[in-house]
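Q: What residues go here?
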């Protein structure tokens, strides 16, 4: 690399960071102008906790015993990370359909910062949703029992999963483009969520479905969080159960490594 290139590299990095911060602020400004949508996104998982914890919880049994709401809450934390993919998809698809993305592409900025700005904003939104869910969990009697360091590690794994799912949502939005096609994503999100260990143990499922649920990326994060929070329902003899924390790191890293570059490539090819 030439001396000039070495000197320009830090400057390019500073501009990329500055552009990312600006585009993150743009997304946050949209939420300030439309607080209703933001609040609904925060409260919907709370409604799910109340529905499953109190309406159906009495009929649920936890493998090895224990309170069902403590079993449920780590699953709902992960489901909150999954539900956010729809808002990511809608925002990116709307910008693409309205020509906003084309205007960004005409500006002198690194193409990837448009996507990283969106990813950063959505990660902040999901961090707020997770904070609400943690408070909701404490309110209904959930506790973390394995100490603060383990609990913080679990929170980090949840946000890592969310970061990976953001790139999945961005890529799909750039492929399908139309905001109305979010229905397609919803059709995919719900089966992924319910064919996991978020609500019931895979041991209660038929053999083939238990295998699918055990290696679901969502299940890895849920099982790891149950272990790190010290909640009931974690453990088992399968490879996925014995290595839940490792898989909770590996799955998001793999999804990010696949869909991150695909999203950037798709963004660069828009209009061609």
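A:
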């Amino acid at each position: 690399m030439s001396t000039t290139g070495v000197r320009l590299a830090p400057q390019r990095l500073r501009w990329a960071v500055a552009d990312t911060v600006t585009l993150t602020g743009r997304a946050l400004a949209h939420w300030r102008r439309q607080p209703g949508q933001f609040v609904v996104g925060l409260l919907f998982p709370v409604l799910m906790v109340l529905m499953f914890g109190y309406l159906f919880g009495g009929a649920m049994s936890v493998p090895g015993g224990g309170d069902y709401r403590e079993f449920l809450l780590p699953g709902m934390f992960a489901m909150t990370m999954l539900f956010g993919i729809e808002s990511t998809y809608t925002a990116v698809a709307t910008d693409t359909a309205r020509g906003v993305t084309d205007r960004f592409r005409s500006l002198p900025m690194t193409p990837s910062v448009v996507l990283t700005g969106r990813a950063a904003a959505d990660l902040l939104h999901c961090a707020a949703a997770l904070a609400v869910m943690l408070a909701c969990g404490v309110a209904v009697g959930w506790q973390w029992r394995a100490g603060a360091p383990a609990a913080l590690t679990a929170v980090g794994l949840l946000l890592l999963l969310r970061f990976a799912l953001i790139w999945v949502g961005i890529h799909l939005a750039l492929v399908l483009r139309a905001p109305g096609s979010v229905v397609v994503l919803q059709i995919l999100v719900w089966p992924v969520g319910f064919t996991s260990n978020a609500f019931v143990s895979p041991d209660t499922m038929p053999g083939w479905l238990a295998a699918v649920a055990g290696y679901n990326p969502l299940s890895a994060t849920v099982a790891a969080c149950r272990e790190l929070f010290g909640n009931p329902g974690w453990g088992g003899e399968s490879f996925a159960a014995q290595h839940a924390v490792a898989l909770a790191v590996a799955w998001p890293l793999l999804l990010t490594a696949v869909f991150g570059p695909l999203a950037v490539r798709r963004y660069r090819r828009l209009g061609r």
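A: Context that may help when evaluating the design: Confidence is low (pLDDT under 50) at residues 1-8. Residues 25-268 form one domain.
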